[in-house]
Amino acid sequence: MRKIIFFTILISLLNSSFPVFSETAEPYEKDEFPGILHDIRRAEIITLGSMPFITFSATLGYSFGKYASHNFDSSYFVNPFSSTDENSFSTDEQIGILLTSLGISAGIGLTDFIVHAVKRSNRQRKLKKQKNTDIQINPIMEDPDATKIEPPRNIEIGIPENEESAENLENSTSTENKKDIKTGKKLNVIMDE
Q1: Concatenated DSSP letters of 117-161
Q2: Burial of residue 116 (number of CB atoms within 10 Å: 0-12, 13-18, 19+)
Q3: 107, 121, 101: which is closest to 55 by C-alpha?
Q4: Checking phi first, is residue 71 left (phi over 0); if not, alpha (psi -120 to 50) or beta?
Q5: Residue-wise pLDDT tens digits, 117-172
Q6: Angle at 157 between CA 151 and CA 161, to 5 degrees
Q7: What value does the CA radius of gyration of the chain take, rounded to a whole number of Å?
């Protein structure tokens, strides 16, 4: 009988070590699963991930509460790390602590699920609203919140830097090729006729 069990285990191990298909698995695409499944998986991870921390906190809180409710008598101090302590938790107390921590962890996961479901719903509603409405382009002059930004005053583009340069530009004799008298740089001026 032992030989049969040994050969069965040996054959199953050898059979599982050789891949049946030589193809590699394809990674998931971004939109392969609906958003609700991502939110459920996230809530599951948060619930199970918070369970150890919540259980530890609930154990410490319960043991301190028990110690404080008996007027801080040292005989009621429960060491949560000791399994041989005479004041250790009873089975009912341990079940109560685990159920309390499970409930708190599930509440945290459910809260996260609800928050992300509402965010996704609002995001989809905004996208749908944007797709269904026409785009309106308002001229900047009609926008009361718009700020007018003055272009830099630069001689090279034909705009005088100060009033003295402007006077020199106006007093120049040539209308097409004007130069700033002070700096001697050529100014590109467009004259309105």
Answers
A1: HHHHHHHHHHHHHHHHS------GGG-TT----PPP--GGGT--S
A2: middle
A3: 101
A4: left
A5: 899 889 888 888 877 777 777 777 777 777 777 776 654 555 555 555 555 555 55
A6: 65
A7: 39
Locate 34 and state its tokens: 């609906």
Distance of alpha carbon 180 from alpha carbon 167, whole angstroms: 9
Structure tokens given for 117: 């479901």
State both tokens at 96: 């109560």
The structure tokens 């060491």 sit at 79
Name residue, tokens 């341990």. Answer: 94
* Per-residue model confidence (pLDDT) at position 43: 93
Both tokens of 182, joined, read: 């002070």
Residue whose C-alpha is closest to residue 105's, from 57, 55, 40, 47: 47
Measured between alpha carbons, how far is residue 180 from residues 83, 111, 151 in Å?
A: 95, 71, 20
CA distance 160 to 139: 29
pLDDT score at 14: 67
Task: Identify the CA nearest to 99 among candidates 68, 41, 91.
Answer: 91
Q: How many CA atoms lie within 13 A of 157 on its CB side?
A: 4
